[in-house]
């Protein structure tokens, strides 16, 4: 049997990190999934004046303080992308393709989703559509792969899969200059629809169509409805109460994913509450 964590935190922005601090202080066995790299959204903030105690700081400076705090508390981030979370009754199963993590409680701090779903995306998920190129790379040995990337740091995933696949198409959805291996074909066009019956066969774009065996959509976050089946949403955000509880017992959410205003200090505060609520939930389960 795999190790069962008390708390699994999905997301490493201000909400997820704040939740992790509280899990650590409450001496809970937890894991936090996310990205060790600076959050693109945070680093682009030129000056932040509404975060108490951090006056006239850039987003990058605040992120560095976050990282220092994590180091001081001996908290490390697991760089894996969770595809689906299933409520199993007294625990949650967090799926990373064929790998699974177990946790008594879950905190969702995934931020807001950038980019709506493409036509055919949901229907062909797991049938050629995926969200983690490095996880699924072995399935595409000597096959044609298309990567739709929303962030420059995804170029590493493209380079990795290019060493396995026979052909890689790369579609950047960001404005920075693209720097990928010479073998990768860069397509600057807008994806519209993923086509296929039982599995992916084509990607239709605004000005062209490409034949492909697999499509990886590398967004900053997955929509909550896809991530956690059965979770209740309101206006595309997760519905929570003041204790950050969702409709699923043991599942909490915080930060931008639960709604506006999209402010760092609000996210950190909600992460704090979610961390405390999850710790209390775990204590109540352990007493039973």
From TrEMBL:
Keyword terms, alphabetized: Flavoprotein, Oxidoreductase
Q: Does the keyword Cytoplasm apply?
A: no
Give the matching SUPFAM superfamilies.
FAD/NAD(P)-binding domain
Q: What's the EC number here?
A: 1.8.1.9
Q: Does Oxidoreductase appear among the keywords? A: yes
Check the record and name the Pfam families matching this protein: Pyr_redox_2 (PF07992)
Which segment of the chain is annotated as a signal peptide? none
Query: What are the GO MF terms of this UniProt record?
Result: thioredoxin-disulfide reductase (NADPH) activity
Residue ranges of every copy of the FAD/NAD(P)-binding domain listed in the record: 5-143
Q: What is this protein called?
A: NAD(P)/FAD-dependent oxidoreductase
**Organism of origin:** Clostridium chromiireducens
